[in-house]
Amino acid sequence: MKTVTGIGEALWDCLPEGRKFGGAPTNFAYHCSQFGLDAWAVSAIGDDEMGDEILDICKGVNLQVICPKMPYETGTVQVTLDEKGIPQYNIKKGVAWDNIPYSEELAQLALRTDAVCFGSLAQRSSVSRDTIRRFIGNMPEDALKVFDINLRQNFFTKEVIEESLNLCNVLKINDEELVTVSHLFGWLPESDEDFETTWKNIDFKSCCCNILTKYNLRMLILTCGVNGSYVFTPDGEISELGTPKVEVADTVGAGDSFTAAFVSSILLGKTVKEAHKCAVDVSAFVRP
């Protein structure tokens, strides 16, 4: 059985309708477990009621976790939705998942992990950043190392992104993040144009292919919301699929299910195009 790990933030999304357990790496691990994989969520929680609730929820859905209790409160995020159902985040700092400790248990998990998913958010602190990098460094050479960039607020730097691009062999990025990163690295000139205008005026396919080559990636996954998604590979193959038209309540967790379905499908022997189709179908109907 293939082993997958999501490492990073485990937290409560405080939505208008109430609290929901979340965090991109944890969502990723849960969705991978639904494909029958040996899935693990790695994070840290507080020694508090919200931390205990996280452990209870994971146990209830049979999700394996390494989430030690730390002397910090369990993470929370205030989430509001705009008129299009797109989430806006206010993420509390100095919480438990900023302090994920490395351990022998993590080192042993890394040795048998066939795919890991990590992001930029949990690397905002030096402690968790070091743990993530040590974990990836102990993984098998041929494992999938997926950087789901997941930019949030101002919790990212050019240095963290570039180091993560050098650590990974698969990049998952959305259209807005591609524009942000391209400006940050000087691949696109800075301008006063808004995102939609910039997007219409750039050759995003060439931009993705350049990133693929520059960082020697095995795959680059680009999601563009209602405008579809793409998977680029070094042999020049581009898988392009539209986004199914479904009624959207909100998009919290949809990207994580996409990544999980794609990675799970690849590990289960599917082709890139087959894995892409599965990811699109799963993310269209996921309800966090």
Secondary structure elements and pairings:
Blueprint: E1 3-7, E2 11-15, E3 18-22, H1 24-33, E4 38-42, E5 45-46, H2 49-60, E6 64-66, E7 69-70, E8 75-81, E9 87-91, H3 104-111, E10 115-118, H4 126-137, E11 144-148, H5 158-167, E12 170-174, H6 175-184, H7 195-201, H8 204-214, E13 219-223, E14 229-232, E15 238-241, H9 254-267, H10 272-285
Parallel strand pairs: 1-4, 1-10, 2-8, 4-6, 5-7, 10-11, 11-12, 12-13
Antiparallel strand pairs: 2-3, 8-9, 13-14, 14-15
Helix pairs in contact: 1-9, 3-4, 9-10
Could you explain the architecture of this structure?
It is a single chain. This protein is of the alpha/beta class and 288 residues long. It has one domain (3-172, 245-285): UDP-N-acetylmuramoyl-L-alanine:D-glutamate ligase (3-Layer(aba) Sandwich), CATH 3.40.1190. 38% of the residues lie in helices and 23% in strands. The protein has ten helices and 15 strands. The protein has helices spanning 24-33, 49-60, 104-111, 126-137, 158-167, 175-184, 195-201, 204-214, 254-267, 272-285; strands spanning 3-7, 11-15, 18-22, 38-42, 45-46, 64-66, 69-70, 75-81, 87-91, 115-118, 144-148, 170-174, 219-223, 229-232, 238-241. The strands form three sheets. A nine-stranded mixed beta sheet has the order 6-4-1-10-11-12-13-14-15, sandwiched between helices. The protein has a four-stranded mixed beta sheet with strand order 3-2-8-9. The chain has a two-stranded parallel ribbon with strand order 5-7. Helix 1 crosses helix 9 (254-267), helix 3 (104-111) crosses helix 4 and helix 9 (254-267) runs antiparallel to helix 10 (272-285). It is globular, with a radius of gyration of 18 Å. Mean pLDDT is 91; it is low at 247-252.
